[in-house]
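Student: I would love a firmer grasp of how sequence relates to backbone shape in proteins. Thank you; the sequence and its tokens follow:
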Amino acid sequence: MNFNQATVFVTGTNRGIGRALLDELKKKGVKRIYAAARNIEAFGDAPNDSVVPIKLDITNADEVRAAAEKAADTTVLINN
């Protein structure tokens, strides 16, 4: 699949599989990646021009609503 023009939203991106997905998507040249995690401070050097960190705890309805509004242009969702 060609992700070059995709806007991808990935949950759980601060470590493990989510972080690996984030790193691979960056290598693929994805237009924009919404990188969601409970603790976005843990990203360290991950954010760049194409990576938009989003604080998201899926058990918090207000954070879910805010994330959905901020990432309304998402074309691919990876719910990790």
About this structure: The chain has a mean pLDDT of 88. Helices lie at 16-27, 61-70.
